[in-house]
Queue: 2 jobs
Job 1
Amino acid sequence: MKIIKAGIEAHSIGLRQGGNERYIEGLLKGFSEIETSEFDFTVFLSQSADIPDFIKNNKKFHIERVSISPVRRLAFDISLQAKLLGLNMLHTQYHLPFFINIPSVITLHDISYLTHPEFFPQTQRMKMRLFMPISIRKARKIITVSNFSKNEILKFYPVENKICVIYNGVSEKFRPVDSSKVETVLRKHGIIRPYILTVSNLQPRKNLTGLLKSFSLILRQEKDFPCRMVISGRKLWLFDEIFSEIRSSAFKDRIILTDYLIDDELIALYSGAEMFVYVSFYEGFGLPVLEAMACGCPVIASGNSSLTEVVENAGILVDPHNENEIASAIKKLFYDAPLRNNLKQKAVKQAKKFSWKQCAIETLKVYRSIVSLV
């Protein structure tokens, strides 16, 4: 049997990059759980990244180090290593190396840089607009993570014959945890129950300003509403409006920002929250929503983009542009205990539909298809 030497670009591991890091680490974990002797994986990690535990003693995986600099990584490191190692194929997220000449796959999570350029710094917009068409043209196959995202991509790029949908998964460690673990994390971060949780990078696309305005609207309407708002995530870009909203709020003492949290702490926060609210303007998938559901946290999410596919009927869907609707949904879910309990059960059941192992199985089918075309 011929061994397929597959290169996996994984520089985002360790960078606290949110969805991109979650995706590639989850996919690699899925590969580690599959019994297959036909693939040999070379994983490209950045110089300072720790090797994930599930890879360390697995003979299917080999580690190569690449620069954290995107120019050096894409112009030199990966192309050179691919040639020296005799790789048969390469899988990256978004951008392919400039001089790669082996069959390649890209994962294109979404095209928000085209549909909502106002959510990106100018340099980021220019980079995506300049280099993505090149990567799309060079890629043998394009994986995307929802049917919504596929349809969006096809509006801008005529790649019907290349594109395939493979849903993300959720790690098995995301599950409800007992109250003692929750309380330990709450004490560490100065959080008092009850609280509403959202998890995302701080950037305009996530509509945190709209969520904060909805929260303030509730507190103005109901003086005794007891919840705090907890926002977990790191600063990404164009976040000044978020902090301006907090500073000007009459209820800023009820808003808690935790910065980036490790998974064990996130799981505790998901498990202890009254609800998880995610009213992003645009999502290719929406991994935090899936993680919250897996932890048994009732969900309110945007009824647009990919989130309808992820949530289905296991949560409340709202218009992210309508702050009154968001506020009403939060109040309804908080005061209606039977509804909360029903959605908790539905959420856990819905989350079981998504696994990284299944994602990995379907991704390997894509790898086989591009190698067989050589």
Job 2
Amino acid sequence: MIKKIILLLAILAPFGLYFLYSWLLKLEKKRIPIVKLSVASVILLIIALGFLRFYGDFSPDTKYSPAKYEDGELKPAENK
């Protein structure tokens, strides 16, 4: 879940910060610099993906067992 939040923040943060900046200063006559914001978003996305790639807690030998039903109860997924 935290990975999804980091990725969403990396994509949406430049646009949200610009919106807050223009709203607070009431810059109504300026155009939105969509190219600059998109480049900043892509750079943050690459940084976030690189961070998540090397931050993983699981080794390559980890076995994943998906969630399953046993005796009418749902057993959560496991990483062994």
